[in-house]
Amino acid sequence: MTRRTRRVEGTMIVQRRAVTAVLAAALLLTAGCSSDDPGPPDSHGSPSLGSTTAQSSPSGPATAETPPAKGAVKVVRTVATGLKSPWGLAPLPGGDLLVSSRGEATITRVDEKTGKKTELGEVPGVSPAGEGGLLGIALSPDFASDHMVYAYFTAASDNRIVRMLYNEKKPPGQQLGAPDTVFRGIPMGFVHNGGRIAFGPDKMLYAGTGESGNTGLSQDKESLGGKILRMTPDGAPAPGNPFPDSPVYSYGHRNVQGLAWDGRQRLFAAEFGQDTWDELNAIKPGDNYGWPEAEGKDGGSGFHDPLAQWSTDEASPSGIAYARGSVWMAGLRGERLWRVPLKDTEAAADPQAFLEGEYGRLRTVVAAGGDKLWLVTSNTDGRGNVRDGDDRILELEVK
Length: 399
Prior knowledge:
By secondary structure, the chain is mainly β. It has one helix at about 145; strands spanning about 55, 75-80, 85-90, 95-100, 105-110, 115-120, 135-140, 150-155, 160-165, 180-185, 195-200, 205-210, 225-230, 250, 255-260, 265-270, 275-285, 310, 315-325, 325-330, 335-340, 350-355, 360-365, 370-375, 395-399. The strands form six sheets. Strands 1-18-17-16-15 form a five-stranded antiparallel β-sheet, with no helix packed on it. Strands 2-25-24-23 form a four-stranded antiparallel β-sheet, with no helix packed on it. A four-stranded antiparallel β-sheet has the order 3-4-5-6, with no helix packed on it. Keywords: Signal.
């Protein structure tokens, strides 16, 4: 357990429908670093302590699907190779895949059957540096009619969310319309920019943010850093949020990069720890997840304890997905895919690791229906050992 008592004053930030404040972006590294630091790969700070553990943490109704006692993973095929710093993945209704490049600031369409890559275009205004760049992408819940692609990226002064019209009838490289800024003012830094976005079962837009290296922002409910945000597709605070007129859905996070819902519409989030514990959290609106006062399971402090936790060299989690009664979590420094079965008792059984070291760093995992997952590697962003064919998208069969 690592405790932090020092609190740094955060900068008041509001989304575009209110008055936009000027961000004082915190570029100083914390004593521990996330797995995307440009220094030693996956360095969190001091060496990790302890082995894999899982904790019980109720968070709403149990899942409807009971997972098998012992899981399995089969790599069915490699869908695509030669991707540059891939980060976000969004399946299209017809089966093809959109993938974002953090460093290139481009979105590419991958033919799910042949692996052929077609660049849609470059997203303007992206400032790739450190852990920043073009990060998560998501399709509008009304994509069939509005053809909107949402993207989370690091700009010169902040992290923001935009939406762009995708017109596949135009020539390659010109298929993205001008970005419409939906939400701005999320703190940016050299590290801890969060970046995952997803539309929930309620058709609201969720975003995982980081504290940008300024730990005090996580406990500041007036800041957008170190939070899970929930908003309408137009960027307004979503109806029913726990704090009046605020997009903040939960707080006390360090660097959220994984969001997924189970069969009963429970939200789960993966989070980078610092020196000791990485976390999988079951999210309840308005709850405080402890950072920087607590890292990992704290017990009895008023913070929401993680559902499962890992030593930092085993995980460094990024994307997560739900399939076959389990949460599947991609590990960067850990270079493995974790399975966390969800019991009817609302507790997590012991996590299981798959693909350890076989494909290097794993960035994003997305459910593809039934027992199928898409898995994206992350070795070409300057932090991994590049292998022939990197980076790639894999099709997995799981149970």
